[in-house]
């Protein structure tokens, strides 16, 4: 059996009244493609999947997901599930820089590193939450292991390989831009980057001064060399589980997510486009994403009796819901919701959430 390393950490986070701190345990497990680190919060719940997250390039699980999972109303959801935050090799805090010539795993190989994690934890099923590269990795894993994945929340997914024009543009950009600048353009919209918001400045500092920037560049190269997922709406190469696609309005991957939506089964897929959220809606709009996630897991049959306190206080948000068909250009229907999100159970919808 591969040698396992375990580190115990306790992370401080905002707590709701009456809550006690949630302990986190970080583990490393060996796989055929090297060691991978993951952090577990909570304890397994009977007959419930684990929430299983995978971050994007330039981020780790804290910088990618902490605002979302620290959000007050999210505590009602996560208390019902154990959750696992995976970190791509070399992305964890304090990770040593890989030696010169190290062959970083491809995204397909990163997906193949997930089964040893689940085997180690003895988890049988998951609800995956991925952003960017993490969304691709979880999708690849779900294609290969449909019985393990009960649902997927995919933020900023691009299911296509880079075309020749994209590849040439990437190479030309690399001649004039630093790796950190290219990753920032991957994470944030042009409007956000030109606006020099506090969020962008904070993440610019994190990435530019990251001690493992060489590792991040290797992950970035693997992402840009990804294969096409070859989704087919009416074929076997499609996701079998419920899927919620999420992207911000005017985000770098808005068109890619729209295209992905056109390739997935409309009876199992919902498309959430969030206004005023930029390139990272889980950072800028954790409240609205929490609402959507809550209804998503309810639609899967979990938490049916729960209600969210903030939703009962807020009656100002609105939502336009349009039925989605193959061409995406058919008749539209509109409806509004006091909560701002239409509950699951109406798959094949495009949901536009505004402030």
UniProtKB/TrEMBL annotation:
InterPro entries xref list: AB_hydrolase_fold (IPR029058), NDRG (IPR004142)
Keyword Cytoplasm in record: yes
Residue ranges, compositional bias (Polar residues): 330-339, 346-355
Record's keyword terms, sorted: Cytoplasm, Developmental protein, Differentiation, Neurogenesis, Wnt signaling pathway
Name of this protein: Protein NDRG2
Native species: Notamacropus eugenii (Tammar wallaby)
Name of the gene this protein is made from: NDRG2
SUPFAM superfamilies: alpha/beta-Hydrolases (SSF53474)
Function of the molecule: Contributes to the regulation of the Wnt signaling pathway. Down-regulates CTNNB1-mediated transcriptional activation of target genes. May be involved in neuron differentiation.
Segments of this protein annotated with the region Disordered: 1-27, 319-355
Pfam families linked: Ndr (PF03096)
